């Protein structure tokens, strides 16, 4: 069993990673974390978004959350980006490397990374 001091240290260390998932930013990044998404690698994608948003100082304006089934299992991991007054963007077959690019270009720079969207996927 850990001491109270050790638990408080762990809490402080992890606070920024948890807080970003709870924030009420104007932009929401939602990662599909149903069984199919997790099996396809959604957990490292979620972590990459959380870390990227924190590292780029976007935590005040961007929240990163998770959801269950999005309904397009063959395109997992799936990430949806909701921005105020804009149409939802659906990114498919995401990886942590792609997530970093989306953070840099879309969330920070304002330009959708079109080649990762469902519209660019070969249906």
Helical proportion?
Answer: 40-55%
Query: What percentage of the residues does DSSP assign to strands (E)?
Result: 15-25%
Oligomer category: single chain
Secondary-structure arrangement, i.e. CATH architecture? 3-Layer(aba) Sandwich
Largest β sheet strand count, sense and barrel closure: 4 strands, mixed
Structural class: alpha+beta
CATH fold group:
Glutaredoxin
- Provide the spatial order of strands within the biggest beta sheet: 2-1-3-4
Number of helices: 4
What's the overall geometry? globular
Q: How many structural units, i.e. domains?
A: 1
Number of strands: 4
How far apart, in Å, are the first and last alpha carbons?
A: 52 Å
If you had to describe this structure to a student in words, what would you say it looks like?
- By secondary structure, the chain is α+β, with helices and mostly antiparallel strands.
- It has one domain: 3-Layer(aba) Sandwich (Glutaredoxin).
- It has 4 helices and 4 strands.
- A 4-stranded mixed β-sheet has the order 2-1-3-4.
- Strand 3 and strand 4 (89-91) form a beta hairpin.
- Helix 1 (4-22) crosses helix 3.
- It is globular and about 55 Å long.
